[in-house]
# Entry
Amino acid sequence: MRNTPAATPTATGRPAISSETLLNIDAIGISFGGLKAVQEFSLQLPAAGLFGLIGPNGAGKTTVFNLLTGVYQPDCGEIHLASRRLSRRKPHEITAAGIARTFQNIRLFPDLSVLDNVRLAGQLHNQHGLLSTLLRTRSHRREEQVLQEKAFDLLQVFELQDRAYELASNLSYGHQRKLEIVRALATNPKVLLLDEPAAGLNPREKKLLAHSIQQIRDRFQVAVLLIEHDMPLVMEICESIIVLDHGVTICKGTPREVQNDDRVIAAYLGSGLTDD
Amino acid sequence: MSDFAQTLITAIAIGSLYALIALGYTMVYGILKFINFAHSDIVVLGAWSSYSLAVKLMPALGYSLDAVPPIWVSVVILIAAMVFCGAIGFSIERLAYRPLRRAPRLNVLITAIGVSLLLQNVGQLSFVFGASPQDMPPLLSDRTLTTITFGEGESVHQLVIGLVDVVIFATATSLMLIMQYLVFHTKLGVAMRAVSFNTETAALMGIHVDRVVSFTFVLGSTLAAAAGFLIVMKYPSISQPAHTIWVLLGLKAFVAAVIGGIGNVRGAVLGGFVIAFVEQFGAFYISSSYRDVYVFALLILILLVKPSGLLGSPLREKV
Amino acid sequence: MSHSSPETNADISNAEAMTSMPSRFGNAWTALIPIAIGIAIAMLLHFLLPSPQKNYYVKVAQITGIVIVLAVSLNIVNGMTGQFSIGHAGFMTLGGYMSATITYYGSMLLWGSTAKHGGFLGSGEWLFAASCLAGGLFAAVAGYVVGLPSLRLRGDYLAIVTLGFGEIIRVVLQQTAKVIEDPDVLANAGVAELVPPPLGGSLGFSGIPKYTSLFWVYAILTATLVVAWRLKSSSIGRAMISVREDEIAAQAMGVNIARKKVMAFVIAAFFAGIGGGLFAHSTGAVSPKDAGFQQSFDFVIMTVLGGRGSISGVTIAAILLTVLPELLRDFEQYRLIIYALLLVIMMLVRPQGLLGIHEIWDLWPRRRATVPAPTATSSVASLPTPSQELK
# Structure
């Protein structure tokens, strides 16, 4: 393993805080065995901000997402959403608090229909009890109906409503990626974590995706944190970018600042970033 | 005091049996990440094939079934049972488990249960082993090796060390040492550990994964066969193949593997002894009717306190 | 950019919601209609068919009904939630013992005899119904206790814990004292005779009044099927299925997976306990060995064969695997060999079970209220412009 210099969290430039901070990540870290997968990761994500999280393979980007969503518990550091402490909470509690994510390797519920995938995510905030379910009470049916309407509305936004009754596993790859985003949005999040949403898409689809990520941010008033390997896409839409390498934050700043940072260029060995 | 020591000796003998069986569970789990439910039935197969061999072989060689034959007869029976069970273990993996290598774990578990049921009930058929218990002809004289006397006057105690217990412990320990050598000091052992660590990477490094898996099953099955043989040496009345007692035996050995940390070879041995101690001393000091209950209570306790077992390392699912 | 207005869309999804639900009326009482119909049918069966004690085929029909209750309830844990319990017979036996204790000793105290008391829907039958309910509740409590470790365990460990649970039940029941047969002895019994309760030890609890009839079996079967179906088609069922499909993703969607697992466990154990009560009062005896794993395997095989979470599939499998062995009694020693082969071959050839995730009525093409396609050309993500308001 390459020896990395003990980089300070804020290598270049100050953290770009445009408005009040929604998600405040304060020096979280985790190690697996002896490997420090993520060290002292800090980030202040403003409401409706669109930040990028980049870095070479194995830099610890997805680990950051796993820490934020409670899949892993951070060894140190704190996570706050608005003023609520989220570190050391269970994943489902964190989702309920307002952080939703997509998965790098698509993790839909393959044997549920497209509609049910979305309804499942949507039912988070109106869970009714066992008894009303078994008795099929009026309020239960009304809630199920509202849930279904909301799910259809969301599916319509992403033009998936025709496939509503198909099994998620029968969708094309591109549609599955879209459904992942729909499903995450159905939990009604304040922060949306997108893990390589453009992976496997063709250039035209990527362009449309870039557009729709911005639209999602404006439309649903969510802050977006985006992991992506497609540099042009990241540079085009992100307001601020954090670069990870071997678990260490090596650079933070605007796309322009990041592109000109020596350490970032070194980390990528000149690939991706320099050719625009 | 002597009762304590006597229980200790039994616990050590039984513990080495549990350890032998637990090794089979733990190795398969380490490599394929599933509970080989049929493993306890291999133990049964080992016990019953030892019996069948003994009743066929001994008269053929001119020995009476009532007298103790020379020691080499036992060795031949043991080795034959191990070879036979090894072959069965190999075939099971080949026919039932290998086609499911990429299937969800639950499917493999269900298959294993199916294989277990199959072995039990085929064994019960009249032309196989039959559905009634049998008595193992004596292969060793259960004579007392030494008697240790201690205490004086009213409180004089005798501690009896029997030949069978010593044979069980010695055989089990030497088999475990051979296994330890195989796993930690041979190329095949390195391959096994590599496959256990990461099957895909091991395959990319040129390790023949199927061969390693086959080897693991053969190794586990031969150890199970030896355990089956040693069990009928200690308890000569053999229950029919589908008797609950066998399932409980297998379950306890599995519990031993879990308590030691499943996937961990040394943990399985440790767990085997822990289980035997809990069971024997619980039976001695509390009540022997509930000896199975103590073991499961311990399992639930360990799973709640340290789910990865005494020597195991926690598993993380890749997200 | 144009797309159909939210109003029309909502209307259509309403229509869909209505057609996909069994009861389409506003009144909450109508939700009980399926159960009322079931009870009416059960009553018809009860009066039209001869008594199970007299007619072999009716007896098989009665047993089949109880087996379906057990298989369908196990399917909530194994099929829908994707956990793997092989201790269902343990819950069944617990319920059986509980309800047998209530009717046997209850009858003795109330009426001075363990014989059946009262006619159809008479006081004896109501005591029996209450005892089955108590058996179900008792098993449900046990289900909660066993379900708790599943908070921390993956499916295959759970299998071992449930297996161990069944065996513990068996061992503990074997230690109980002889059943008290004389009402006078019971009346004068002290604490020493009653604790631990005299439940027959390893010989089993016999002499239980045979209250189980086609009516009770099919009424309870209806309730079980309705509950299973309503669970499956509700948000709770969806959450349970999501646990089966992908625990990590389910958590990420806000599903409290531990809670859903325990809930599945408790519901399944409840119905298993009731089924145990029905069994006990059908044969008149329960035995500790009923709690053993061999008994559980029968139900496991039915859920595997029927299909993961498919209620109709499991029902069909339960009928087949109960009726066929009755017809092929001569092959009894091969029955389990065939079952075992069936399991292995199923996993190799059709691991999802006969019907897979579908219900039998999904096999016939059905007209569905489809949502009209929007006029906009399909692109990766054509979001409405920010000015358009979403509901």
